[in-house]
Design goal:
Shape: rod-shaped
Number of strands: 0
Distance between the termini: 94 Å
Helix content: over 70%
Structural class: mainly alpha
Number of helices: 3
Largest sheet: none
Order of helices and strands: HHH
Length: 146
């Protein structure tokens, strides 16, 4: 309903030639809401990926509620017709979604770091077991020779 497309409510009274200020505000508000929704979807995707990998991200999941709340508040703030207040609410949601994305990326990075560490530890243990096996085998050969 918000925006400057022909089906938007705002475009009934505001266009590029009449009531230009309202047209620009509606266009800006639509862009901000779209930006917030995209950031929320991106953060949700990263949270889901980190969760799928078995990482602890309950705090990030909890913060997603704050982003949803900011999106709902922004829809309410449209009726205040104040671009400044609207932008403040949307910016808060964008900041929170950026934090969520950062936490999720960090968890995903930690997942791969742990997997790499597991590979290294497995190689070391395998080499140690192999060398121990060869040492015991050599001792057995010496025992047989005696």
């Amino acid at each position: 309903m918000l925006g400057v497309t022909p089906e938007a409510v705002c475009s009934r009274c505001h266009d590029e030639h009449q009531n230009v200020k309202g047209y620009l505000v509606a266009k800006t508000m639509r862009g901000l809401i779209d930006s917030l929704e995209l950031r929320e979807q991106g953060a949700q995707k990263l949270v889901n990926e980190a969760e799928q990998k078995g990482m602890e991200i309950s705090e990030a999941k909890f913060k997603l509620r704050d982003v949803r709340q900011a999106r709902l508040q922004s829809r309410t703030m449209v009726h205040a017709f104040s671009e400044g207040k609207f932008k403040e609410v949307v910016d808060n949601g964008i900041k929170i979604s950026a934090l969520i994305a950062e936490e999720s990326q960090s968890a995903i990075h930690e997942y791969y770091f742990r997997r790499f560490g597991l590979v290294i530890a497995t190689c070391i243990i395998t080499l140690l077991a192999l060398s121990l096996f060869l040492y015991v085998r050599r001792l057995e050969r010496r025992q047989k020779q005696l």
